[in-house]
Amino acid sequence: MKHLLSIHDLDREAIERICDRAASFAEVSDREIKKVPALRGRTVLNLFYEASTRTRSSFELAAKRLSADVVNFAASGSSVEKGESLKDTVLTLSAHKPDAIVVRTPWAGAAELVTHWTSASIVNAGDGKHEHPTQALLDVYTLLRRVGSLDGLDIWIVGDVLHSRVARSNILAFAKMGARVTVCGPPTLIPHGIEESLPCRVTYTLDGIREADVIYALRMQNERMHDSYVPSLREYAARYQINGRNLGPRQIVMHPGPVNRGVELSGEVVDSPQAVITMQVEAGVVVRMAVLYEVLAGSRAPEVAPVPTAPTTTPGAA
Ligand code: NCD
Questions:
Q1: Which atom of ligand 1 lies closest to the CA of 257?
Q2: CA dist list (Å): 186 to 208, 229, 262, 278
Q3: Which residues line ligand 1 (CB under 6 A)?
Q4: Which CATH fold topology does 133-278 show?
Q5: Would you state the pLDDT for residue 309?
Q6: Hey, what CATH topology would domain 7-132+283-298 get?
Q7: Tell me, what's the pLDDT at 78?
Q8: Average pLDDT of the chain?
Q9: Distance 101 CA to ligand 1 centre (A)
């Protein structure tokens, strides 16, 4: 696999292979020296045009734990502020000969565009409201650790599905792994006809939420809203917040972060042992190690010329 742009690029077998490899890398994260030489001599460039806490730090750690060299590039503070385009930025940074570029942008489809401007492997770390495939993989990994299998699991994704790249990637990944996915939120925040284009069913109220084995809450993506989609956050929370009153004792709660406490989840739910949000963040490092390994070392031999051997000289010869 040369690039990871979308969950559409992966079948169930590939998702399982990445999760198995992530599990084998988990052991590295428990060592005192948290490093293996798998990507020694490779360069990974993190190209982030949008805010990120978890994704960026975990991609950086993942590359470093595999012994790759890492260059971090944030659009703020760079020549992007002077008007340099994404294309020119990629062409410029490609002069450093990165083997992989991890890209996050506010533009749907940008990760795919970047593949045309560089020979590096591209990993999509979020392209606008389109996709966030490594988030979906780390969520599958977290559930596999927690419950063993996703086959037959009822997963409800609740919140701003319309603007969420996480929702799109996760619906696809959860369904490929055998789960039944329901999306739930106000009609203004659920894309019209989503059940025809993605493997999920739709509901507009939390009635029936107790059927869910897993509740995956989403943040309101205010940065992608150009209109007001709900009367107020208070109204939204009153109808869609997951809290101690509607959460069943055996349900698992997930969230990609950052959480807006008191909006999509109550504080008590965030802090409860039913929430696996910290496990998701931990999974982020090992799953991204597995993804970098997959695109850089997976099926391709390193493209390096053999080091010429020095001519052997006989001691004492003239
Ligand atoms: C998500 C994102 O940026 O798409 N965060 C993340 O990567 N963990 C979700 C969000 O910002 O709400």
A1: 8
A2: 15, 8, 17, 27
A3: 54-55, 126, 132, 135, 165-166, 219, 256-257
A4: Rossmann fold (3.40.50)
A5: 47
A6: Rossmann fold (3.40.50)
A7: 76
A8: 92
A9: 19
